[in-house]
Amino acid sequence: MTMAVPFRKDRLPNGIVVLTERMPHVKSAAVGLWLRVGSRDEPARRAGISHFIEHMLFKGTERRSAEDIARAIDAVGGTLDAFTSRESTCFYAKVLGEHLPLAVDLLTDLLLRPRLAPEDIERERQVVLQEIKMVEDDPGDLVHDLFAGALWGDHPLGRPVLGSRETLEAVGREEIRAHLRDFYQPDQVIVAAAGDVDHAHLMGLLGDATQGWEGRALPLNAPAPVSRAAVARDGRESAQVHLCMGVEALPYAAPDRYAMFLLNALLGSSMSSRLFQEVREKRGLAYSIYSYQQAYRDTGLLVVYAGTAPESYRQVLDLVWGECRRVRDEPMDPDEFRRGKEQLKGNLLLGLESTNNRMTRLAKMEIYFGRYFDLDEIIRGIEAVTLEGFRDLTARLFGADAYALTTIGPVPEPAAVA
């Protein structure tokens, strides 16, 4: 049985949406300033600019140097960070509830008054170029970008969030200012806060901090990608073969999303999952093997990753594909089905002990649903998944032709999924 947690939603006069979830038993507060813009909204010539802007906003404002920003948050024992994804950008802080005014002041200062000094741009460009090189040197990371590109081609969702060396070299101060002007406007902003936070107090802080900030972003009209069957290889020397095999899956708000979560849990998202048990525990063919699902506003992914010795590659690939076929074709054991549901509910409840997770949950519900789901409603959604609905989903996903397979490492010859 779950307990209702106070949730509030408001909108400032300039269009900023404000969401809060009070957690009376904690002393900390997590607050995130989310923008509904990410790498999929970038034109090809500006690929990676959203991530670059994320870096640049920490390089100083009209009121604070980069060192001043770091000292201010460290002085109260808090954290201040950011991330860029394909469909959103988030700047967030975690502090004791009494220091929420500082967190709001810092976050709004970063967004509204960035300094964007030319020397900082050139210095940070080198930092992000090193970040790109770091990913390129890590095949266990790079293979996921290779997979998205294989499945979705030149669509923005198929491009790395970091962009490329070529596009990053072309980004200058005017391009950054133009992107901020075009997309970083109040009607694209969601402020989500969870923990020791009072809704009215946060509304007042934000109203003062964003007073005079008006404007609307350009429309974001990126079409949905078209998936394709593809095999892509990077044959560099590596001690392991890193592989991703997967299919197009469901959008974030799909009605049968709970069946999707359950499929991922049973297939490979935990130590008790089929792939982990079959490939690692029973056969010792991989240290790391897992599945994951990634959802976007109009599409999604279900992907299996494994890292294995070159001589075991064929066997691991056959086992992965074999489990996908088994979950599609063979009757599901009711006990396994029930355990998967209990796992999902446990993961949900344990994750919501974190103020950061609650803050993120608030923002994503607003971005993808425009409404709040309480825990009881989510648990009812998990419980409502039927064996018949589950079979329908697996038949759709694993019956399609648009599988993609990507590998990095010494694979002897190209392989198709069959």
Structure in words:
The chain starts with 6 loop residues before the first strand and ends in a 10-residue tail after the last strand. The protein has two domains: 7-209, Metalloenzyme, LuxS/M16 peptidase-like (Cytochrome Bc1 Complex, Chain A, domain 1), CATH 3.30.830; 230-408, 2-Layer Sandwich (Cytochrome Bc1 Complex, Chain A, domain 1), CATH 3.30.830.10. It has helices spanning 49-56, 66-74, 100-112, 118-136, 139-152, 165-170, 173-183, 199-209, 257-267, 274-281, 313-329, 334-351, 355-368, 375-383, 387-398, and strands at 7-11, 17-22, 28-35, 79-84, 89-96, 189-195, 230-234, 241-248, 289-295, 300-308, 404-408. The model has no long low-confidence stretch (mean pLDDT 95). It is α+β, with helices and mostly antiparallel strands. It has a six-stranded mixed sheet, sandwiched between helices. A five-stranded mixed sheet has the order 7-11-8-10-9, with helices on both faces.
